[in-house]
Design goal:
2 copies of one chain form a homodimer. Chain A has about 350 residues and is α/β, with parallel strands linked by helices. The first copy, chain A, has 10 helices and 15 strands.
Amino acid sequence: MASRIGTHTIALTREVFLHEGAGIAGKTEKEGPLGIFFDIAFDNDRLGQETWEKAESSLQTVAVRTLLGKVSLQPEDIQVIFAGDLLNQCISSTFGLRELQIPLMGQYGACSTMAQALAVGAVFVDSGAAERAVAVTSSHFCSAERQFRMPLEYGGQRTPTAQRTVTGAGAALLDKSGQGPVIRHLTIGTITDLVIKDANHMGAAMAPAAADTLLHFLSDTHSTVPDYDLILTGDLGSVGSSIFRELLAEQGVTVGQVHQDCGCLIYDREKQDVYAGGSGCGCSASVFCSYILQRMKRQELHSVLFMATGALMSPTSSQQGESIPGIAHLVHLQQPDRLS
Amino acid sequence: MASRIGTHTIALTREVFLHEGAGIAGKTEKEGPLGIFFDIAFDNDRLGQETWEKAESSLQTVAVRTLLGKVSLQPEDIQVIFAGDLLNQCISSTFGLRELQIPLMGQYGACSTMAQALAVGAVFVDSGAAERAVAVTSSHFCSAERQFRMPLEYGGQRTPTAQRTVTGAGAALLDKSGQGPVIRHLTIGTITDLVIKDANHMGAAMAPAAADTLLHFLSDTHSTVPDYDLILTGDLGSVGSSIFRELLAEQGVTVGQVHQDCGCLIYDREKQDVYAGGSGCGCSASVFCSYILQRMKRQELHSVLFMATGALMSPTSSQQGESIPGIAHLVHLQQPDRLS
């Protein structure tokens, strides 16, 4: 059973374990500082497929198969999978997961989708609607570039505020029993729109949503920043992270070193040509499901807020003069009681 | 609390009321046999907007505002809204719901999205994660045509198996207390792929998924067709409905007159030029949230299976030679115990 806390937060009363995760990445991500933490990192971003879109589908297949392999489960042991990606009509998920034959519910929250999928999955397991659920999301630099911006062959220049879509995927197993951290709270985000219209400035579009969701969570749970070891945003990048911290400071909340951002962690911005950092559904998913979950399993982190952020736009909406609204969903993970 | 029944079905133990619905439609739908049942039907499918995409967003705004008006609730009374549509990156939902500031979780299941949104919403209310949740989906003939097929100005001919995307939206309020039918069971669909590749033959692509989900549900609940007053598929259309019945007959299940399809109900195929019937996220949503829900409220229907079907494809996946996989999610609604 779940219950409501404050205006925006859900408290889970049953222990929902984030039992295991798998993070998959591409070549540039393998060469970054988290390269050694990914379960699988490919040297060729085509993954042996004919098209970038099919390569991205393969990222999801590999992520879920790797996850299931780590816990010795079969697809039929999973009652439902919550999956999403950035491609039109979420085809990475459809074609990547088709062969697994797990009951599927597609999720769309742009780059916030991993937090959303974990949140919905947690409610399903908490309620008894599923004993085990999987959350998975992906993105691919090459499929995203040609869908959202320019064909790769065009070789367009990027602005310093632009972010590089991560080639990667992450999958997580939610289980009513098991090991690892448990999911304690969820805060569902609302659309926040500061009327940013520059698709090369996504961090600025998403930062207000992240600040909004975090402030709701802290207020609803009567907690403060020092209560957490890590506040992990999804893919604000370096520019968005600065704006996020400034917006919070205006409200009297200092996150300091407790805040880290998956888009900043995944690349070495001094050595790699990645502008303001990583982005995409696969950014927070691959970082969270490998590096962060491994640190929680090693007891290095006891209480973590995972807050993936999404920019809710399409090329069509931008061409029609619309702004880029943001959204952020929060998942609070903690070591289970018996270990704390 | 929810519990699992059989392999694919969820039984809800708390009463989750489908307290109220609102169905919104466009001009062609207004002229069809269900025209008098829609809460609002527009004479001009532009809805006063500059573009078809913005018109579709307005359908969602109007659907949710009409729903809330009928039950005298404000947006802040709703803890979460599950919304989806067919447009790239689900922009109808984003821009249609932005002003309402209700915590949002985007759903994507192609034309199955209304059943999926109701199912996820029902689990949230059942678990206590939300006291009230709204499910809403939309589609628009003109935005869908130019995204999935051809610009309207091209005037392409259609095959007899093609379906017409419904201009419409439906919104439903799920409430832990209230009136109206309650949601008893949910069956989450798996991807079913009979390797149909013709985007003008969607009914055939979706029919196997609908048959698969219904067979799972009947098996899981140890029930038979006569236990239900209505088995309502989403938008198989006339061709897909025939295939659906044939596939079931092969398994010894005869649905007969108990089966109806929203895509067949919404238009008069003899008088209106709609090929094999209606389709789109807004088809099942607008029909279910107006005509069907009104019949349940009048006690004309006591036990209904609402099973929306989706074709999980994009123009890109079709251009790359992929088939059109289908999916169907089922929601079982019943009059509450005190009335049965």
